[in-house]
Amino acid sequence: MINIFMQNWQTILNGFWITILSSLIGLGGSLLLGTIFALMELAPNKILKFIGNAFVEFFRNIPLLVITLFFYVVVAKDFKISGFWAGTIGLILYTSAFVAECIRGGINSVDEGQMEGARANGLTYTQAMIHIVLPQGFKLAIPSLGNQFINLVKNSSILSFVAGFDLMYQANVISGANLDPFNTYIIVGIFYLIITGLLSTVMRQIEDRLGKGRLQ
Amino acid sequence: MSKAKLKRMGLFASVILVIILIGGVMLGINARERQNKETDALSQIKQTHVMRWGVKCDTRLFGLISPKTEQSEGFDVDIARAITKQIAKDNHTHIKSEFTPVTTNSKIQLLKNKQVDAVAASMTITPERAKIVDFSKPYFPAGQSILVKKNSGIKNIKDLNNSKSTVIGVMGTTALETTKKFAPKAHLIAMPDNSQAFSALESAQGQAMTTDNAILYGFTQQSNNVEVVGKPFTNQPYGLGVDKGQTQLNNAVNKALAEIIKDGTYNRLIKKWFSNIPGLDWRDLTK
Amino acid sequence: MSAIIKFQDVEKYYGDFHALHDINLKINAGETVVLIGPSGSGKSTLLRTINGLEDIQKGKLVVDGMDISSKDTNVNKLRTDVGMVFQHFNLYNNKTILENIMLAPQIVLKRPKDKNREIADELLAKVDLSNQGGKYPAQLSGGQKQRIAIARSLAMDPRVLLFDEPTSALDPEMVGSVLNVMRDIAMNSDMTTLVVTHEMDFAKAVADRVIFMADGKILEDSSTDEFFKRPKTERARQFLSQVEHH
């Protein structure tokens, strides 16, 4: 097993980096998009609400592979789009549907009095959302967001299907050459564990820090 | 229990789990190797009257799932069937062929796992693979070629030797390694299977798709937009594979292969599958 | 004196439930009015219509010159002139005490930072919580929270201040400090205050007028003295005898 790593360490580390990069972009993108669509789902405006619901239901209910291949095979006919971006965009869209649900759940668990207090205080709905309700909703959503982000890292292996040069892709290439998939995949599994392990530690720390004092 | 203590226990448990996982896999490998030495595939085939073949399900002309029968159909499948029949005849018994779909990536693994007795899966004979599987004599004279879009201006593999070109291959094949020798400057990407590699070519993720000419010809049947260009630049015949050490079965396969070539069954199957492909003369393939 | 709040034939429904019946009421600028009545009588609902937290289905409601019943009225503008103190405080949990007080003046009134801070400090002193500005609401007692909520409303410099049962959720020993602050506002400012409360002593001491409600209707609207000495209706007499026995 150590042999495989010694022989392919450059390839594996390259894949490791691509997986991290795709996960980071996916995390940022899905957080942003997920928040926007959660707010749309909760918006008083019926059209926004409909768009938000439609987005979430659509991307939550089709396989990530289908979204990714759509970008890699169909969209690529008109716009140049690499495997990395097809996979990462797929990852963002797919994950943001789940992130939106987490954030919507978080916002819904914020005491209604918070919005009422802010409105009575003269803030508009949007101001009250941005300054008061959303920050509190975020905190409540953090544990479930953590789960989604770990899923995101694992799902980033979708890049291997569209030649995105990620960890899984390199594992396939290496095991195709050395014909020893068992040990190759174990090595790669350990690298995934490193990322997800780190991520859960960070999420738990954020949870602990925000949990203190401020929220009741 | 304090939170910190719980966390430490969780970490400890994860480490234990990883060790168990790795240990388990090791044990599994050992057990399988032991098992390999113990069972003789040929006598098992004779005993159960079933020979289990791994065949492709995504490769036109060789092994492609037919929507009607939901079974793989192609040259590989027919050869496997003919060889099973011949082995049965040689041993004066009856043997049924059973087919399991395999992918380029999984074919060797299924063989090692003893989920199939032999594979007929458009598999090129390579020294690397010969270390872990036993190959029969070549049964198909394949060579690597490139498939490009019509009017692309690409005439042969040399035209792809620049940093602007991307060549699409299939994971687990030798084609990309070979491409590096002939077009070292080109970018290479690997897709999980033939049909996805073909989709990638169609959506211009690369300028050419490379694999065995025989498979590429299958795609020219399927689509009018593509063509195979240039002569094959390698000689990489296909072999039937059995698990390493199954010498008796391999001998039986080789004997049967020689016999079906001799009695004309082989040429009949070549004609059946390769006689109406533009740009290919099936008579070149006969033996 | 001119009316700063004017209800004219107002009706309010929650679905089939008729919450407010034929409300006609004028409140003059600077008045301190207490609304009392049994629970479920509609007094909180009436209060919440004044800053648009509840809409009305019929009639006309004009507050500070703005017609709330009209769709064109900007409620956000109205709410900068009408403050509200809630039973459950509704302080911003994610903000410090100072931020609670300074947020709305900063982003709604665009009050300059220094001025904003100065006013916040004055208000903290007024509600006797000067050294608590850096804390979060979760770190304060109920009585302290309610005094902060009052300070938060005052920071907007409203013309009308609504109190919706401000002491009902408090432990008895906390009630006094909150009532003191309210009394100070009622006596020493020209703000119009409407208070829904069960604190009869407070009403007697501070109110200019008492409005008695039951079943969504206004049954009595009289001066404080008159209401407590000579209630006109049987319902009011009954209600008073019940609360006074307490």
UniProtKB/TrEMBL annotation, chain A:
GO CC entries: ATP-binding cassette (ABC) transporter complex
Name assigned to this protein: Amino acid ABC transporter periplasmic protein
Similarity comment: family membership: Belongs to the binding-protein-dependent transport system permease family.
NCBIfam families the UniProt entry points to: HEQRo_perm_3TM
Keyword line: Amino-acid transport, Cell membrane, Membrane, Transmembrane, Transmembrane helix, Transport
Ranges of residues in domain ABC transmembrane type-1: 16-203
Domain of life assignment: Bacteria
The keyword Flavoprotein appears for this protein: no
Gene Ontology MF, one: transmembrane transporter activity
InterPro entries linked to this entry: AA_ABC_transptr_permease_3TM, ArtM/GltK/GlnP/TcyL/YhdX-like, MetI-like, MetI-like_sf
Membrane-topology annotation of the record: Multi-pass membrane protein
Species of origin: Fructilactobacillus lindneri DSM 20690 = JCM 11027
Biological process terms in GO annotation: amino acid transport
Subcellular compartments: Cell membrane
Membrane-spanning segments: 12-38, 58-76, 83-107, 182-202
UniProtKB/TrEMBL annotation, chain B:
GO-annotated molecular function: ligand-gated monoatomic ion channel activity
Protein name: ABC transporter glutamine-binding protein glnH
Keyword match Signal: yes
InterPro entries: Bact_solute-bind_prot3, Iontro_rcpt_C, Solute-binding_3/MltF_N
Pfam families in alphabetical order: SBP_bac_3 (PF00497)
Origin organism lineage: Bacteria, Bacillati, Bacillota, Bacilli, Lactobacillales
UniProt domain Ionotropic glutamate receptor C-terminal: residue ranges: 59-276
Coiled coil: none
The keyword Signal is assigned to this record: yes
UniProtKB keywords: Signal, Transport
GO BP term, example: amino acid transport
UniProt xrefs under Gene3D superfamilies: Periplasmic binding protein-like II
Domain named Solute-binding protein family 3/N-terminal: residues: 50-277
Automatic annotation (TrEMBL), chain C:
Presence of the UniProt keyword Signal in the record: no
Ranges where the ABC transporter domain occurs: 5-240
Coiled-coil spans in chain: none
GO molecular function, one term: ATP binding
Keywords for this protein: ATP-binding, Nucleotide-binding, Transport
Pfam families the record matches: ABC_tran (PF00005)
PROSITE patterns: ABC_TRANSPORTER_1, ABC_TRANSPORTER_2
Stated family: Belongs to the ABC transporter superfamily.
Protein name according to UniProt: Glutamine transport ATP-binding protein glnQ
Organism, as annotated: Fructilactobacillus lindneri DSM 20690 = JCM 11027
